[in-house]
Design goal:
Structural class: alpha+beta
Oligomer: single chain
Helix content: 10-25%
Number of helices: 16
Strand content: 35-45%
Largest sheet: 8 strands, antiparallel
Shape: globular
Distance between the termini: 55 Å
Length: 885
C-alpha cells in the first residue's frame, strides 16, 4: 500500500486541484451556472483516530459506519471531549476543511466525525453535495439522510499533462435537505479507506434552492427549538421519603426513533441533589412505606397486560439494601397502589374493563356513558407487603375513587359520583368512609362542585377542594344574584363527626390548584393560581393564617410533602426556566433549593428571548395583565410580526416553560408574542373569574381587541399589519369569535375550537359539564341569544381573516365537527380557510411525530400569512396545484 501511495503523488495533487476549483463537471457547470452555492468550510472535527478492522473475513472500512454511539445525538462545541472505546479521549476542535481532511500515512482505516450547524433564515431545500472518494454517512438532526459505502481507488498511474482537462471529478454524495427556519445539526461520519489510497479528500457545499439563506457555523448556540422541548425528559411525579432524606422523581422521555416513551425513576439525595439510585425497565408508581424501611414500585409483567409489584429495603447508611423482592406478580388491571399506615400491607387499586355487547350495539345508561372506561369496575384489594394472600375490600363500582387512608389505618376515604343528576352541576359526589375491619361504609358528606379530599393529621377533619358553590355556596363572597365560576377552586375543612364546614380560603383571592395537609406539623400546604403565577403558600388551622413561600419559579406543580419531616418537594418553571425539581421547608424565611433540571443537556446551548410584563386598563377600569416575549436577537430598531395568545377553558395562560403552545419557540422564529389574561380567567379573584359565566366572549373579546390595539400603539417594533392570534379549546372558540368581531388580525389559528355552542354542549363528552359553568342555567331552549348570537358559526359571513383550523379527529372533548362546520361555512363563502385534522389524536396531540407536525404547521402558517414565506407551509402541505395530506 505505501508503494501505491508513493507512485501516485502527482496524480493526487492534480486531482485535488481540480476538485477544489471545480467540484462538478463542465456540462453541469454550464447547466447549473446560475444555481446558488454555499461552501461549507468551517467544521467541528472529532479525531481522526485509527480504527482497525474487526476480526474475520468480509469486514471492510465501510462497515465501520455501522458502529453508532451517543455522539450522534449530541450538539457538540469546540473543546467538548468524548471517550473512545480504543482507550483514548478525543476532543472536538474547529477546523477549516476545503479539499482534504488529512493525508494519513498509516495503512489502517481512520475515522472522524465532522459537525456543522446550518441556520436557515427561512425554509430552504438545497442539495448537500459532499465530494470524497472515501466512505461516509450523513445525518441531519440525528436522522440519516445519505450514505456512501464505496471507496474509489486512486489510479495507479498519473495522467499525462496533455490530458489534464479530462481528469475525472471526485465522486459526489448527494442529499436533498429540507431546512425549516432555525438551526439544524449536520453530522458527517467519515472513514478513510487505505484501499482507496491518496489523501483523505473532503469538500462539502450546499447547492440550489435557498442555499444563500443558510448560514453555517461551528457553534451550537441557537434559539429554542421545538425538539428541545419534545425530546427532553420530563417529570411525571414526585414522592418524598417520609423522613425527607430522599426524593423519587418519575421521568419519561420519547424513545426516539422507536415509538412510545421510556419511563424510569431516579432517587435523589435531597441534601446534595445526587442521584443515588435509578430504577429502569419501565419502573413507575414508587411509594415509600410509612416507617421509611421500604419503597415499592410497579413494572410491566412478563405478560404485557399484567403488572408486577416490588419492594426494596432501605438501609441507614445507603439507600438500597439487597435485591428487589416481589410483592405480587402478574397482577391484572392494575391502576395504582399505596401503603397502609402500619406498613404491613399495600392497598392496590384495580380497574376491570366492562364486558362489551357482542351484538355491536350500546344502550346509553346516563350522560356519562359515552366516556371511555365509564362502565369499568374500580375496586381495591389489600396485599401483604411481604407477599401472600390478598383480600378484596370493595366489590367494584364504576364511580368509586380511592382518595386517602385514615392516619390510624382503620378506614379508607372514597368518592362515589352519581352522574344521573338533572340539575347543575349534573353530578353529585358522596364522600364515603369504609371501615377496614368490617368493610362497612358510611356517608360523610354529599358535595356537588367537588375536586379532591384527604384526611387531616388526626383523621377528624377532611381537607376538601372544590368550586365556590360547594356546601351551599360557602366558598363565595359574591351576591346571591351572581353565579360564581366554579373552576375558581376553593379549599374547605369538614368536621367528620359534626359536619361543620370552614371555607378557609373565602377571603383569599388566589384560586387553589392543590392542597396537602402536613401530618408532620399540621399546616396545610397550597399551590395557588395567583394571576399568571402558581405560587406556594401555607395555612395554619391553629391560627387561621396564611403565609406565602418563595418557590424559585413562577409556576409550581406536582406538590408532595414528607410525612415525618418539614420538607416540600415540587416542580417549578418560569418563562425562561425549564422544568426544575425543588425542595424547601415551610419556614417562610427559608430559601428553596433546586435539585434537578432533567432537560438541561437539551437546553444548554439554547438562547431565550427576554420576557417582559405588560398591562393595560380596560374601558371599565379593570387592569388586564399580560406579558410579551421577544426574539433572542431582538433589535428595537426593527419591526416584527406579532402573535397574540389567550386562555383556553378559564385558566390563565401559564408562565411556565414550553408547553403545547411554546411562546419561546415562536419568539425564536422571529415573532413577538403577546399573552393576555382577559376577563374570566381564574386566579384574579371571584368577581373577575365570574365574568366567564354566561358570557362566551362578550367581555373577553373586548379585552383582547383593546389589549392588542393598545399594545400595537405602544410598541413601534411590532408591525401592525402583521398580527396573528391563536387559541385552543375555549381559546379556539375565542379565535373564531374574534374574527366575527374585528379585522384587526391578519392570520388566525384555532385548535379544537368551538363554533356552535349547542352542538358542543350536546356532543362533547364533557360539553354539558363545562357548560354548567360557562353557560350556567342557560340552555338552547331558554337562551337562544347566547347559543346562537355567541356561536361564531352563525356569523361566519363576517369572517375575512385567513383562518387555520386544527383538530384531532378523535377529539372527545370538542368533537371535530366544531371545526368541520366552520370550514364548510367559510369554504362556501369563498374565504381563506384551512382545516387540518390529526389522525387518531384527541383533545391534546400526544403522538410525537404527529405533535411535531402539528406544532410545525402552526409556525409555518404564521410564516405564510405574516411573513409572506410560503416555503415551509408548502413543504408540509403543498399548494392548490399539488396539495399534500
Amino acid at each position: 500500500m505505501p508503494s501505491i501511495r508513493r507512485s501516485c503523488d502527482l496524480w493526487v495533487a492534480l486531482a485535488i486541484l481540480v476538485a477544489v476549483s471545480s467540484p462538478v463537471g463542465a456540462a453541469e457547470q454550464s447547466a447549473e451556472g446560475s444555481l446558488e452555492r454555499n461552501a461549507l468550510t468551517s467544521w467541528l472535527v472529532l479525531g481522526p483516530w485509527t480504527t482497525p478492522l474487526a476480526a474475520g473475513d468480509g469486514f471492510g472500512a465501510a462497515d465501520l459506519l455501522d458502529a453508532r454511539g451517543a455522539e450522534h445525538e449530541t450538539w457538540p462545541a469546540a473543546g467538548d471531549r468524548l471517550a473512545h472505546a480504543g482507550g483514548e479521549e478525543l476532543e472536538w476542535s474547529q477546523r477549516t476543511l476545503d479539499g482534504a481532511l488529512e493525508a494519513p500515512e498509516a495503512d489502517l482505516p481512520r475515522t472522524a466525525l465532522l459537525s456543522v450547524y446550518l441556520e436557515a433564515s427561512r425554509y430552504a431545500s438545497p442539495e448537500l453535495q459532499i465530494h470524497s472518494r472515501h466512505p461516509l454517512r450523513v445525518l441531519l438532526d440525528g436522522a440519516q439522510i445519505a450514505e456512501r459505502r464505496e471507496s474509489t481507488p486512486v489510479p495507479a498511474e498519473p495522467p499525462r499533462r496533455a490530458k489534464r482537462r479530462a481528469l475525472p471529478e471526485l465522486p459526489t454524495t448527494h442529499a436533498e435537505l429540507e431546512l425549516s427556519p432555525g438551526v439544524h445539526h449536520l453530522l458527517v461520519e467519515a472513514i478513510y479507506d487505505p484501499v482507496a489510497g491518496g489523501p483523505w479528500d473532503f469538500k462539502a457545499e450546499l447547492v440550489g434552492d435557498g442555499a444563500g439563506d443558510v448560514t453555517a457555523a461551528a457553534s451550537p448556540r441557537r434559539g429554542l427549538r421545538l425538539d428541545d422541548l419534545l425530546l427532553a425528559p420530563a417529570v411525571s411525579a414526585l414522592a418524598l421519603e417520609p423522613n425527607g432524606r430522599h426524593l423519587a422523581v418519575a421521568l419519561a422521555q420519547p424513545s426516539v426513533p422507536a415509538t412510545g416513551r421510556e419511563r424510569w425513576i431516579d432517587i435523589l439525595d435531597t441534601r446534595s441533589g445526587d442521584v443515588v439510585h435509578s430504577l429502569r425497565g419501565g419502573a413507575r408508581d414508587l411509594a415509600w412505606s410509612p416507617d421509611g424501611a421500604w419503597f415499592s414500585y410497579a413494572t410491566r409483567g412478563l405478560d404485557a397486560d399484567t403488572t408486577d409489584l416490588w419492594r426494596v429495603a432501605i438501609g441507614d447508611r445507603q439507600l438500597v439494601v439487597g435485591p428487589a423482592q416481589p410483592i405480587v406478580r402478574g397482577l391484572e388491571n392494575y391502576s395504582g397502589h399505596r401503603w397502609a399506615p402500619d406498613g404491613a400491607s399495600l392497598l392496590v387499586s384495580l380497574q376491570e374493563p366492562a364486558e362489551v355487547d357482542e351484538r355491536g350495539a350500546k344502550r346509553y345508561r346516563d350522560l356519562a356513558d359515552r366516556w371511555s372506561g365509564r362502565r369499568d369496575a374500580r375496586r381495591v384489594i389489600q396485599v401483604p407487603a411481604a407477599g401472600g394472600l390478598s383480600r378484596p375490600l370493595t366489590a367494584g363500582h364504576p364511580d368509586d375513587q380511592l382518595l386517602d387512608v385514615r392516619p390510624d389505618g382503620g378506614a379508607l376515604l372514597f368518592a362515589r359520583t352519581d352522574q344521573t343528576v338533572t340539575e347543575r352541576p349534573f353530578s353529585r359526589t358522596s364522600l364515603l368512609e369504609l371501615d377496614l375491619a368490617t368493610t362497612s361504609t358510611r356517608e360523610l358528606a354529599q358535595v356537588g362542585w367537588f375536586d379532591r379530599a384527604e384526611y387531616g393529621p388526626d383523621g377528624r377533619r377532611l381537607l376538601i377542594t372544590g368550586g365556590p358553590s360547594l356546601f351551599d355556596r360557602a366558598g363565595t363572597r359574591l351576591g346571591a344574584d351572581v353565579v360564581p365560576n366554579d373552576y375558581d377552586t376553593q379549599a374547605y375543612l369538614l368536621d367528620v363527626e359534626g359536619g361543620s364546614v370552614e371555607a378557609f380560603t373565602l377571603d383569599y383571592d388566589p384560586a387553589v390548584i392543590a392542597a396537602r395537609w402536613s401530618r408532620h406539623d399540621g399546616r396545610i400546604v397550597l399551590s395557588v393560581q395567583d394571576g399568571s403565577w402558581v405560587r406556594l403558600a401555607t395555612y395554619d388551622p391553629a391560627t387561621s393564617s396564611f403565609a406565602e413561600l418563595s418557590s424559585g419559579a413562577d409556576v409550581v406543580s406536582d406538590l408532595d410533602l414528607a410525612t415525618a419531616a418539614d420538607l416540600i418537594a415540587y416542580v417549578g418553571t418560569s418563562p425562561t426556566r425549564a422544568e426544575t425539581v425543588f425542595v424547601r421547608t415551610t419556614d417562610a424565611s427559608a430559601a428553596p433549593r433546586d435539585l434537578m433540571q432533567p432537560s438541561a443537556p437539551w437546553l444548554e446551548n439554547a438562547d431565550l428571548g427576554e420576557v417582559r410584563d405588560w398591562s393595560f386598563t380596560a374601558e371599565d377600569g379593570t387592569e388586564i395583565i399580560g406579558r410579551y416575549y421577544l426574539p433572542p436577537d431582538f433589535d428595537p430598531a426593527k419591526t416584527y410580526p406579532l402573535i397574540v395568545d389567550y386562555y383556553g377553558g378559564t385558566v390563565p395562560v401559564s408562565r411556565g416553560f414550553g408547553g403545547r403552545y411554546p411562546k419561546q419557540v415562536w419568539a425564536g422564529h422571529g415573532y413577538v408574542v403577546l399573552v393576555l389574561q382577559p376577563s374570566g380567567a381564574t386566579g384574579f379573584g371571584q368577581e373577575f373569574s365570574a365574568r366567564h359565566v354566561d358570557a362566551w366572549g362578550r367581555r373577553t373579546a373586548d379585552d383582547i381587541i383593546q389589549g392588542t390595539t393598545t399594545f400595537l400603539d405602544e410598541h413601534d417594533f411590532v408591525d401592525a399589519e402583521k398580527v396573528g392570534c391563536i387559541g385552543a379549546s375555549y381559546g379556539g372558540f375565542m379565535t373564531m369569535y374574534l374574527l366575527t368581531r374585528t379585522d384587526l388580525f391578519d392570520a388566525a389559528v384555532s385548535h379544537a375550537g368551538i363554533s356552535n355552542l349547542a352542538s358542543y354542549w350536546g356532543a362533547g363528552w364533557w360539553g354539558y359539564l363545562y357548560s354548567a359553568v360557562a353557560s350556567a342555567d342557560s340552555y338552547p331552549w331558554n337562551d337562544r341569544e347566547l347559543y346562537v348570537e355567541q356561536s361564531p358559526l352563525f356569523t361566519a359571513d363576517r369572517i375575512t381573516t385567513p383562518l387555520l383550523l386544527l383538530h384531532g379527529d378523535a377529539d372527545t372533548n370538542v368533537p371535530p365537527v366544531e371545526s368541520q362546520q366552520m370550514y364548510t361555512a367559510l369554504r362556501l363563502l369563498g374565504r381563506d380557510v384551512e382545516l387540518i385534522e390529526i389522525e387518531g389524536e384527541d383533545h391534546w396531540i400526544l403522538d410525537l411525530p404527529k405533535r411535531r407536525l402539528w406544532a410545525q404547521t402552526i409556525i409555518a402558517y404564521f410564516d405564510l400569512q405574516l411573513k409572506g414565506e410560503p416555503g415551509w407551509w408548502q413543504s408540509l402541505w403543498g399548494d392548490e396545484d399539488a396539495p399534500k395530506g
